[in-house]
Sequence to fold (381 residues):
Amino acid sequence: MPFNAETLIAQRALAVDASGIRKVFDLAANLKDPVNFSIGQPDFDVPERLKEKAIEAIHAGKNRYTPTQGIAELIDPLLKKTLADTAWPAEDTCLLILSGTSAGLVLAMMATLNPGDEVLFLDPYFVMYHHLPKLCGAVPVAVDTYPDFRLHPERLEAAITPRTKLLILCSPNNPTGITLTQAELDAAAAIAKKHNLLVISDEIYDAFCYQPHLSIAKSLPGQCLMLKGYSKTYGMTGWRLGYVAGPKAIIDQMTKLQQYTFVCAPSMVQYAALETVLTHHIDMTPFVRAYQKKRDLVVNGLKDSFEINAPGGAFYIFPKVPGNGKITATTFAQQAIANNLLIIPGNVFSSRDTHFRISYATTDDKLAQGIDILRKLAREI
Ligand code: PLP
Fold:
């Protein structure tokens, strides 16, 4: 029999769909200067000072493997800050520098999930939460939050079985922009304690919070992995940096697995990131304020035509397609693309296909154009 590479593909790879976001990008490839509301990253560039520091690090020969867990100069201040923010016990808390928050999700699941274990998260969800458990032979369990996208404790608890091991929370949320309240976080922490769940708190959008950021971490010493990212905060999605803090027993295993997978986070990026912890030169608040204005612009521009849960953070809005189910979000997204506007249909992030994701990380001109197109499309349904 001739060699056929396709016959070699493992079930775990076949179980994962290509990202629906990529499909939108493929459809959009032929558009000229589209209004692009589909991009999950800030529209500002990395601050100059961080660029200079990364270049300096390269010239200074910081181009080799770093220790698996990251450079001590970066770990120490981040750990100190984590302990101050969470009041976690120092003796049981460790911190691992990651090649992006994504690496933290991968390693956390590899370190904790056995086949058949169940992973809870709220629907709508960030796509990796749905696919990564499957790579470990585990079962993703999405807990419905429609129509308000709030955490409903009774729904969460109803989804727990003896196989439930992990609960992933993301606030501010991708794709809804919803931020969880203290009451919601307290309810989730109580459920996690009652059922001995490990909580992964994905805080990659913590800088993009239009009120003080609240974290569940504080309530769960020894029972939470707190994931932080640099990608969105500093507009450096391509640089690959993040970190995870949590109980020593789990961080030790994640570090061991990092040794045989990601090896270490990019060396020059770790050195550049020292600038964010050793000094306070890099103030991102003007960008965050600008994004808050963009959020208001879009919410105000769309609220008469679409049902919207006004988001408290990140740079996303997740409006409902009008027309009471007359058309799916996928059809609506195709109509938008035909009008030169890129949005992501809800079924990429959800078991439902009734809403769509807008990223407002773009210029005010483009936002105004996109709002006009969306209002026109809503009138035509
Ligand atoms: N978590 C969430 C909720 C995200 O939206 C993203 C990226 O879009 C990530 C994690 C991964 O980010 P990175 O690996 O760039 O840190």
Observations:
- The longest strand covers residues 164-170.
- The longest helix spans residues 285-302.
